[in-house]
Predict the structure of Transposase.
Amino acid sequence: MHPTMINNWKRQLLDEASSLFEKGSETSKANESQQAQIDELYRQIGQLKVERDFLANSSAQLGLKSEKPW
């Protein structure tokens, strides 16, 4: 570890330490935004799984080659 890097971290902590304990700070807003994005991604994953399974079943019914690599 280089001393300059440690000094930069220390300075950053001292400058932003008060925001760690504030309620309703930007970090909580960022966490809410990230959680909303995660929820949307999980929704999309679920939708894609349903579509994949539907297409796999449909292709099997039509007699098309269906190998499930997953």
